[in-house]
Structure formats: C-alpha cells, structure tokens
Amino acid sequence: MKKILFVTLRHEYTEALIKNTMAAAAKAGADICIDVVSRSEMDEHSRQGGYDLILFSPLLRFLQSSIEIPTKTVGSKIYGALDGEALLRLIQ
C-alpha cells in the first residue's frame, strides 16, 4: 500500500478530490491510502513517518523544499476540476 499525506488549506474541497481519487484507485486496482491534513498539522504527521509521498495543494507548493521525503504539488487544473483520475496518475 502506498501511503500519502495531502497537505491543504481547504479540507472540505480536498476531501471531494480524495473521494474521486479513491474511486479511481478502486477501479484501477491501486492500493493507496491518503490522509488529508492542514498546514498546521503537517509537521506532526510527517514526523510520525510511514508516508511514501507528500502532496501539496497548489497554494502550498512553496513548502516542498522543507520536506525530506518525496513530494509533489497537485496542479491547479487537477485540484480545481476535482479530477481523481488525474491525481491518481500523478501519485503513481
């Protein structure tokens, strides 16, 4: 299982994107787990470890340089369209 931490400013909007991504993952047979946290919760969760990837919402991309594990920024098109299939491709 690939464990992912998604850092965002807007939980409710990101939750809709994650729901679409998990549906796409189930359809594709991908085994992923995505935890969604706010910027203020990021340090605590990333220190706990176990994450294979940290995703950042478009407005938080500047935080990538402060993280030692692999990171990616979700593009505005994917984020704005709530495109779960595109996010799944980005994760894989």
Describe the structure.
With 92 residues, the protein is of the alpha/beta class. The protein has one domain: 3-Layer(aba) Sandwich (Rossmann fold). It is built from four helices and four strands. It has helices spanning 11-28, 39-48, 76-81, 84-91, and strands at residues 2-8, 32-38, 53-56, 71-73. It has a four-stranded parallel β-sheet with strand order 2-1-3-4. Helix 1 (11-28) packs across helix 4 (84-91). The longest helix has 18 residues, at 11-28. The chain starts with a strand and ends with a helix. The relative contact order is 0.27. The model has no long low-confidence stretch (mean pLDDT 90).
Question: Descriptors for this entry?
Answer:
92 residues, alpha/beta, four-stranded parallel sheet, Rossmann fold, 4 strands, 4 helices
Task: Set out the fold topology.
Elements: E1 2-8, H1 11-28, E2 32-38, H2 39-48, E3 53-56, E4 71-73, H3 76-81, H4 84-91
Parallel strand pairs: 1-2, 1-3, 3-4
Question: How many H/I helical runs?
Answer: 4
Biggest β-sheet, characterized? 4 strands, parallel
| CATH class wording | Alpha Beta
Q: What is the global morphology? A: globular
Radius of gyration: 12 Å
Range of strand content:
15-25%
The oligomeric state of the chains shown is single chain
